[in-house]
## 1
Amino acid sequence: MPEKDDIYSSKIKKTGIFNFSDYYNFNHNWLVEELKYVDFQEDKYTEKLVGDAKNIEIEWTCKRKMTDYFQFQIKVKYRILGLTDIEVTKNGVKTKTNKGSVEVIVTGTLIKDYEGKFEQNGVRKFLRSIYEKWVIPSRVTEYEDKLAGHCEEFLNQGKAYLDLEVK
């Protein structure tokens, strides 16, 4: 069984007017195209109607193989509360958009020996502990920092998008 270490966890929260569909696509494209997390999966998408508003919960799991031993995993959870459709006038043109509150929680996990090559017997498990403790400790730290950087960059890009869009 691979060893998983949670390296990063943070969240952002914004309330106001923004286009949810554009924000969703921006975040998806950033993970897949900019950060190269091609193993992308939407684990959960639920919508609940509360009067004329929607409450939406979305969960993504994104993985990226870094080496034969290390894999990055980023989990993104969205909670959108009170999302309503509205029309705004911008430069004399009416545009359909949304109003509501969005919360994004990002968790980064470093997965070691994700293929379970060292888990076949007790001797290999012992060799793995020696390998991680004495042979590659600087590489483990390097990948932990890199994963934290990916998570921070994703969250900052999403926050910057909302800062520009939310009115």
## 2
Amino acid sequence: MILLIPYLSRIKLLEQQQSTSTKKKVDLRRLFTLAKSERLLIGIGTIFLLISSAAPIAQTYYFGKVVDDAIISSSMRLVTINVLIIFGINVVGAITSFFRAWLFELAGQ
């Protein structure tokens, strides 16, 4: 217990310093006014974010269609078409993810 006394006094000093400092008012309105010049970049980046987030959802849907068509269909034509659709979805998701990261990085600089 005696060994803890210096640490307790440091904690009390830290608490006193934190209580004396004034906290600035931070809200969304102030954040939006600070980011006003980057509004276009953030908006376009958000659109790319939504598209890149929807890509895995569409991918799982079409993967289910691949499995269903492989079991039900006698020809592999539908399976091939759905696999090419999945490939396209992955390409679109990768491109939109790149532009999302690039635009948010530009907005943050």
## 3
Amino acid sequence: MSKPKLLIAESTLGEPWLAHHWDEFFDCKIFDWTCNYNTNDGVVLIDDRYDREKYNQIKSQGLQVVRPYLMDSYVQDPCEYPGQDLILRAQDSIWIQESAMWKHLKYNTPRSAAVPRKFFLLLINQLRPHRKTLLEAVDSYLPESLYTCVVRNILLPDDVYVPITGRPGTANDRHYVPRWYSETCFSMVSETLGHSNRVTGDLLYISEKSFKPIAHSHPFVIQGTQGNLQYLRSRGFETFSHVIDESYDQEPLLKNRVKKILEILDSLYQEFKRTGTVFQDARTKQILEHNYNLFFDSNKIRELFRDQIAHPIMEFIES
């Protein structure tokens, strides 16, 4: 039986680390903008949110379109079928894409064992309001931690700065420097959103930021939307309730989550000053190994890609 035809016009989804996943389920080609296509040539994959002009060019040829909203979506948001399009969403799309990318980049090479002597690692590009609040609150810990705040020109050694014409630049948020993690006890993650922008309630938002410490075998505390830790546990990952009070994850209000996080940091810092390190117990090491193995599990990633990305597209093509 022949595979459904798929024309990939969204450049981020045509990257080599995803190619074998696409090729398993589809007859794939990269979309050629100099060509005229017809409906027999396949369904086109393009995210219209970032280039509406190209999307309109495709639609003018009468082609079916899959709009992959696999980044910058809330976890709970379902697929949609506006007009003749499919808006594709996948609850685990960040895990799928980051695992494939970081394995391709050989970030899954275990780093040398070391006892960390810095408190936490905090990586900030854009200084959103919730991050500014956090950064000000943890100011006393910063001299004994590693942190970035790119918009304030605070970068770490070996960071990769990316200039952007017309606005402040950024750091390469997929760049991995092993010693940043070896030298710090845990990641203080400040997610893209501290709360949802929806008036209907606090929806769950997960980015690569929550998966970085998992991929890099690092304990973590997450300042994000309500339920980030619950989401990770529902996927089989383990967290660190044996060391810290993780009830902050279920606080509906951001200010209360931040208050509890600051209490956690204070407690950890007291131990850090007393012993020189934290999160060095045997149970933590078991959790780090489990999470690392699950994150990079090729069979699991294939299963997630099949069920959440390939099958919805195939059903859309057949409908």
